[in-house]
Amino acid sequence: MLLPLGAAAIVTAVLVWELARPRLRGSLRRLLHTLAARRARRAASQLSYDPGRELRAEQRARELLRSCVNEEEWAMYRDLGFLRVWAPTRTRARLRLGTVAGAQADAGGDGFPYAYLLYPHKPIVAYVPRTGALLNEYCVAFPDETRPYGSVRLPDADDVLAKWIALAADERRLIADANMHLPGRQIDPQRVREDLARLARWERERAERGLRGARAA
Fold this sequence. Notes:
Layout: H1 2-48, H2 53-68, H3 71-80, E1 83-86, E2 115-118, E3 124-127, E4 134-139, H4 156-177, E5 179-181, H5 189-216
Antiparallel strand pairs: 1-2, 2-3, 3-4, 4-5
């Protein structure tokens, strides 16, 4: 009795295996393909990703910025993390500067009617040096064209330098092409005011150090 039952069980197992084998074989192929793809992606990412790449890119960008701007501007970026750019002309701006709480862009800050703060990967902020009134934010973007080996964004110092060059080369076109918003759209106005206060302290301390150095000489 046991022998026939055992034979039947073996036959049943063989039939089940034959029926299931194509499906199992397909599943196994899919599993092996998935594992191979994962290994290939992991190997490619290990070859292409360099943890120090962004640090080296930023260091090169800072060196380039330093070679392009003057000594004071470089020290400002190094110490404060942003640049202040005076209005390219000493005439009243005929751009889309607008007003804030009735504050007009009157001359101030060494005779300049307005100035810009350049932050890495943030809008350009226009303000009145004499009063500190914030005018507008100008959103511009400079993508990294070295992709796929680069990044969607330029290094911080390169982004600031790109804005600096664009303002110096053609301020009107940059402002006309930018997306203009009132202050506070992307940058907290309180942060900008604090940065302006930091800038004022930084300039006073720098002037005092220069005066002491001149007296010592």
